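Methods — Computational structure assignment.
A single polypeptide chain was analysed. Its primary sequence is given first, followed by the predicted tertiary structure written as structure tokens.
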Amino acid sequence: MKNHDLSEKLNLEPSDETAPAEDNNLDTLQAEISHLKDEASRNYEMYLRAVAEADNIRKRASREKEEYLKFASIPIIKKILSVTDDLDRAIKMSADNKDYDSLKKGLEIIARRMDEILQEEGVEYIDAVGNTFDPQFHEPLMVESGTDHPENTIIEELQKGYILHGRVIRPSLVKVSN
């Protein structure tokens, strides 16, 4: 059997009636494919821009955070500078006058001002003397045996301890009874 005969039996040759419909259908599909390719290209371009924008935002946020942390201490430093100025004046006045009672009074005022600044910033003093030793808040430097105090009681505070917003920033250095 020849190919031509086989084509007729299988009706593989396009008839004149179906050829334009198939060409029209093919053109429509190619146009739709072209449109979808364009749309995919635009979507990919938008995706790349969105990724780049997200990366820029992340970098900008990182820079802003670094900048903030770099200068976050300025308000507290300004407060401390006023105390430093007071200390400088007290030292100068005491050098001129040799009046140590006035120097002591001035230093007490400066120390109170420094305590006020610390309290304004949320720093709290750890109360130690007379309390039971707590390793979370106290660091023992000395242990004294045979005292009139109950065991593990803080007898003396050698250095003040401080808490900031519930976190120990420096434990109290203490002498504890044994």
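Note: The first strand starts at residue 123 and ends at 125.
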